[in-house]
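Convert to structure. Protein one:
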Amino acid sequence: RVLNPERLRQVPKHFSWLDHRLVREHTIEKADVCAWALYLFLVTVADAHGLSYYADASLSRRLGLDPRRLARARSDLVGLDLIAYDPPLYQVLSLPDAPLPMATRLAQLHAILGRRP
């Protein structure tokens, strides 16, 4: 069962399962190597919907992470909105929409406030 049908992975226009926005938008800097090892593993083993069913014991063994470190890596990826997790089901998500630049958000706020009576 798909955990988040609105966020099914799609091959990006630049033809790579690993979206270049991970680097361009500095997302890669927001987690440590253990979280990225888990992410790469999940991307590699996921089906066409981004789903996989690896148990913690298998992931810990394959990635060389103790269970607490695996849990923290998973929590980091969930916090970055890159995966959904409902034990034992993982879903690799499409990347969230990029946040609007601050100048654009301020212009929108001014436009909204300017319309108030």
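Protein two, convert as well:
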Amino acid sequence: MSENYVIIFDTTLRDGEQSPGASLEVQEKLMLAMQLARLNVDVIEAGFPISSPAQFDAVKLIAQEVKGPVIAGLARSLALDIDRCWEAVRFAKKPRIHTFIATSQVHVKHKLRKSEDEILEMAVAAVKRAKGYCEDVEFSPEDSSRTGKDFLFRIIEAVIDAGATVINIPDTVGYSNPEEFGNLIREIREKVPNIDQAILSVHCHNDLGMAVANSLSAIRNGAQQVECTINGIGERAGNASLEEIVMALKTRKDFYGKETRIRTEEIMKTSRMVSHLTGIVVQPNKAIVGANAFAHESGIHQDAVLKDARTYEIMTPQSIGLATNKIVLGRHSGRHGLKKRLEDLGYKLSAEELDKIYQRFMELADKKKEIFDEDLAVIVEDITREIKEVYHLEYFHVFSGNNTIPTATVGIKVNEKLLHEAACGDGPVDAAYKAIDKIVQLPVKLEDYTLRAVTSGKDALGEVGVTVAKDDKRVYGRGTSTDVLEASIKAYLNALNRLTTMINQKGK
């Protein structure tokens, strides 16, 4: 194995699934395993086969169906665990049994209630039993970072002699820090005489927020494999984040001098799949895969990024599978960012028009956290065209229910004359729109309808946006109200007013 190559051991399906609230069905685990194979991880820890029938079935199915990575199963240092693990992973082309036992004094005395010699004997017996099934055997002394070094070095040497091919050093409770953990890895390499006969791995938890830092320090000090999860999910505060480790090694290859086989373009897709299936939302400011990781709102930043993205981006969004970065338009945005976004939307504006649009944009930005493209379209049309309110809503009545045909009556003032019509539809909004169409007599196609809450609570202000088209003309309309039906009708009339103005101006 090349000294510059770091093995990526993904335990999203085992340790990651132990996150509170994260429970995956067998088919969901297979779906994720397939995606992890596309991501090109070296090892997939598919589960803990003896822990439940569903865990066993998932590991077995993944071993049968997923090609490419090593498929590992976890087992305690007990004969029944190891036998059950082998029954599940034996179908894989490259199977691995990963066995573990706690070695720190707090675990040995209070959890296992055994002597160190008894623990060492159990570990050696477990590795030998696993070795009887397959060549690839991994051993983890649980809570290594709080284990006495003399005992830790002794048990590592013994299990390698028993046949272990991978030695994993877990910082099980995230107790260590980067300098300390790196020194531990270096000491293992220096003081365990047969360590060169096994791959040295690390598994860091994030209880103090240092899982990635500890893992990278371990790599700097000779670790050849890192165990990690997508989005950093896992027990308590989670595990070292796969995407952060991989992109740190890739972005700072000048410093670490290491590389992985990960197809980084698959990172975002994998992150979103894990978030969707587990229900664990990625925090917006999460490194690499958070919604804000490639987003820029500051006007100074936007100006620089538009000139050269390297000013504020140390990696490209494309490198993790995103199409582009995100220029967020809000109260901190500058004129340059707004101008670029308007150009992207196809608007050609004079300097005077841009000044007016920017002023209106800033007024709206004080009221809304983020300005969307639809908002810009309304502002531009308001500035560049004098929109005449031909159609004004006077009243509406809707009759609807689960066992009745929705019916709407709408009263509209058309050039100061009140007209009203009624119509039936598939729902109350559709019925209202059909009644309006009868009054307006302007054949249009409703291409898009969106509804979002502008405020929170039961009395939230709802905002409806609609896009309507007639021939080659397409306009956007918007309406707001605490009543969704009223907001929907206002949005439709707003669009019809804009379309009518456009047609009348063209006819002059």
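The mean pLDDT is 87. The two ends are 76 Å apart (CA to CA).
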